[in-house]
Write a structure and sequence with these properties.
Blueprint lengths: L9 H23 L7 H17 L25 H6 L2 E3 L9 E2 L2 H9 L7 E7 L2 E8 L2 E7 L5 E3 L2 H4 L16 E9 L2 H13 L8 H9 L4 H7 L2 E8 L8 H10 L8 E4 L2 H14 L7 E8 L2 H7 L9 E5 L4 E13 L4 E13 L2 E7 L3 H7 L6 E5 L7 E5 L26 E2 L6 E2 L7 H12 L11 H9 L14 H5 L6 H13 L5 H7 L7 H10 L3 H5 L3 H5 L6 H11 L2 H13 L7 H6 L8 E5 L7 H10 L3 E3 L8 E4 L5 H10 L2 E3 L1 H7 L3
Parallel strand pairs: 2-11, 19-20, 19-21, 21-22
Antiparallel strand pairs: 1-6, 3-9, 3-10, 4-5, 4-7, 7-8, 10-11, 12-13, 12-15, 13-14, 13-18, 15-16, 17-18
This protein binds 2-(butylsulfanyl)adenosine.
């Protein structure tokens, strides 16, 4: 076939779908859960890769691609609590809230500058690493404060923004009647460290970085707590109709004059050299700032020129971000030790000569896995690079200097036995990780099961942090999750750091977990590969533990998302007498081992046999809720429109491509209200 006209290969298609899934998941973890699972650099790298493939094979580009949409922090999603959904009203942005094109390459910055019209002026600013906010002022009064949301609509977090002292609630009447200011909400380093210290003392999960701490804080329901944490804000963009001044720089100066917080680190540049000097200066100087920055933003100064340059689907063409490379340090690897995780995976850990990195002292970092160590020929005594990407745990990224003896034989051996229980490790083919197979006797794995069981999305038992579980486990008070249900007040209150009040709260929470629905109990059991969503689908099909216990492999694989591997894991789980005994204990303790009657009533076969695509933005339920409703009523939700699609559940701003495709195939678009009518809601 002629290469020029060849269509996307199967492997490109697969890679695109993998990249989309990873980036979508990363967006949810970053924007909604305030808890990133991959570093910013890794995210940017994957996004780049997806953009490149989509450029090469435009037929693979769909409007729902993460390259075409900004991530969403809206509280209408399933990960937000019910109270959050109610607390923050969602409001449509007057101007879509876009993101910025970014690059780590100075060369690309130069190229971008060279392609601008001759003689343009550039405003160089710091790129603050917090979360964006849009402030609306009407007749001199702050009326709304919207998060970016999905770029089209945002959560109105006005109450929380009002705790930031530097943001005026009322401004002088001589300003435009109506204007909007955009900026970044940040938690300064000092406040971030104080907050994490408190969380550590209370055994609450730590925030990975100030950005996540700020985004978690802005979505709190308790404004007093928000105030206590000490958010700050910098504004960097004025919008509105008939505004004074034709340049961005003059506008920012005016905004500062009006009494708003605007950073002083802003420079009007007239040449590439001036821009590059700004970048070089702040690359080091930013370490002395009280807040986190992750790059430089360059904007065309003249507003008319901005308008001429316009926008892509996701970002303005008149601005670009240069991102600073992750901070790294050279240090000596003194020894390698091994750590067993909750799932039995053994991770090699580098013990380092302590170095300062992004404001903290680092003496341990992950070495990832055996293959990484071998491919870099890393050994004790080497100088290595250590880096902190947005994660809490620093990582080794490579060897800093070739040691003299590199030509000699390299003989690294991963530890053959589990550092906790001495069991010989196994390495599953195709996996990079070594695991301890002693699931029933290895202490971190046993504790891991309990930690998973009490976690928020499982039984949601409050007050039992990892350390408390380790203490109770160490004393032999809990060996398996079922033991939680026979803990007494005295067992808990006698623990160091647990007073009578906390003990009481834990007991109340344990009691409350008895009404957690069957689907979540199933997830809490920790069957391998049975995640939250899969558990929900299985529980719908098998409405009691008995039904699931006797399910055949065929019946199991009939459930959407359940492949042979998961089916086998479920069968193996129920073939294990220890697990069956644990289930009996949990059932006797009063846990929901079957679907409750009300829930059974809320599901139906009304959408049986229908394949439904969801597209657009909704106001009555989130997309995830619609997905759950489709499934609860017997329908199937799929991602892309095809001949098999029964109808499209269409919200606002449905992508034009999807709309065209539905029209061309004669597939009906069903609005939100009509859909709810169909399922009698
Ligand atoms: S201007 C249309 N200026 O970076 C242009 N953004 O990745 C609007 N950010 O969502 C953005 N510092 O949250 C602009 N000085 C700055 C910024 C800045 C940080 C954030 C902002 C935006 C993100 C883009």
């Amino acid at each position: 076939m002629n290469d020029l006209f060849s269509s996307a290969s199967e492997s490109a298609r697969e890679e695109v779908s993998r990249l989309k899934a990873t980036l979508t998941r990363a967006n949810i973890d970053y924007y909604q859960n305030s808890s990133p699972t991959i570093s910013d650099q890794e995210y940017d790298r994957l996004m780049r890769r997806l953009q490149d493939i989509e450029k090469q094979y435009p037929e693979l580009l769909t409007p729902d691609s993460p390259t075409q949409r900004v991530g969403s922090d809206l509280s209408s999603t399933s990960s937000a609590s019910k109270q959050q959904r109610k607390a923050f009203q969602q409001i449509a942005h007057r101007y879509p809230m876009l993101s910025l094109g970014n690059t780590y390459s100075e060369q690309e910055i130069e190229d971008w500058l060279r392609h601008l019209p001759a003689g343009v002026e550039i405003v160089a600013e710091l790129k603050f690493d917090g979360l964006s906010i849009s402030l609306w002022y009407e007749h001199g009064r702050l009326t709304h404060a919207l998060t970016r949301g999905d770029g089209v609509r945002g959560d109105d977090v006005l109450r929380n923004i009002q705790t930031i002292g530097s943001i005026p609630q009322v401004v002088s009447a001589e300003l435009p009647d109506s204007f909007e200011l955009r900026g970044e909400v940040l938690l300064p380093w000092e406040a971030f460290e104080r907050l994490n210290k408190e969380r550590e003392d209370n055994e609450e999960p730590l925030f990975a970085n100030p950005r996540n701490a700020a985004s978690g804080t802005l979505k709190l329901l308790d404004s007093k707590e928000v105030e206590r944490r000490g958010l700050i804000c910098y504004l960097y963009y004025l919008l509105g109709e008939d505004l004074p001044f034709d340049t961005h720089y003059e506008r920012l100066e005016a905004v500062k004059q009006w009494g708003f917080p605007v950073s002083d680190a802003i420079k009007l540049c007239h040449s590439i050299n001036e821009v590059m000097d700004f970048i070089a200066y702040w690359d080091t100087e930013r370490k002395n700032l009280p807040v986190a920055t992750d790059g430089i933003v360059l904007k065309v100064n003249n507003i008319h020129q901005q308008e001429e340059l316009g926008y892509t689907a996701k970002s303005p063409r008149w601005a670009i971000a240069y991102k600073f490379p992750a901070e790294k340090q050279k240090t000596r690897l003194t020894s390698i030790s091994y750590q067993v995780g909750r799932t039995g995976v053994v991770t090699p850990v580098a013990n380092l000569e302590p170095v300062q990195l992004s404001g903290t002292q680092v003496s341990r970092a992950t070495l990832h896995n055996e293959d990484f160590i071998r491919s870099m020929r890393i050994k004790e005594g080497d100088m290595v690079w250590v880096e902190k990407g947005g994660e809490i745990i620093p990582k080794i990224t490579g060897k800093a200097a070739e040691a003299d003896d590199d030509s000699t034989d390299y003989d690294y051996r991963f530890t053959p036995v589990c550092p906790e229980c001495n069991t010989p490790l196994v390495r599953v083919e195709g996996e990079a990780a070594w695991r301890c197979p002693n699931r029933k006797g290895c202490p971190p794995q046993l504790q891991g099961k309990i930690i998973h069981f009490v976690s928020r999305k499982a039984m949601n038992i409050d007050g039992l942090g990892d350390e408390t579980i380790a203490m109770l486990f160490g004393e032999g008070l809990i060996k398996t999750p079922a033991d939680l249900y026979s803990l007494s007040h005295a067992d808990l209150a006698s623990q160091e750091r647990l007073g009578s009040k906390s003990a009481q709260n834990i007991l109340v929470s344990i009691e409350a977990s008895k009404s957690v629905p069957w689907a979540r109990v199933l997830f809490a059991l920790g069957i391998r590969m049975v995640g939250e969503t899969t558990a929900r689908k299985i529980a719908r099909r098998f409405p009691s533990v008995e039904a699931l216990q006797w399910a055949t492999r065929e019946q199991l694989t009939d459930v959407e998302d359940v492949g042979e591997q998961i089916a086998d894991n479920i069968i193996a789980f129920f073939n294990d007498t220890d697990n069956l005994q644990e289930i009996i204990k949990l059932k006797n303790a009063g846990l929901q081992m079957q679907v409750s009657e009300d829930r059974q009533a809320s599901s139906s076969d009304l959408l049986q046999g229908q394949t439904i695509v969801i597209s657009g933005v909704f106001s009555r339920h989130s997309r995830d809720e619609y997905k759950a409703l489709i499934e609860a009523n017997g329908g199937k939700n799929t991602g892309s429109i095809s001949k098999k699609t029964s109808f499209v559940l269409a919200g606002e701003n449905m992508g034009p491509e999807k709309r065209k495709k539905a029209e061309s195939l004669g597939i009906r678009l069903v609005g939100e209200d009509e859909f709810l009518g169909m399922i009698n809601e």
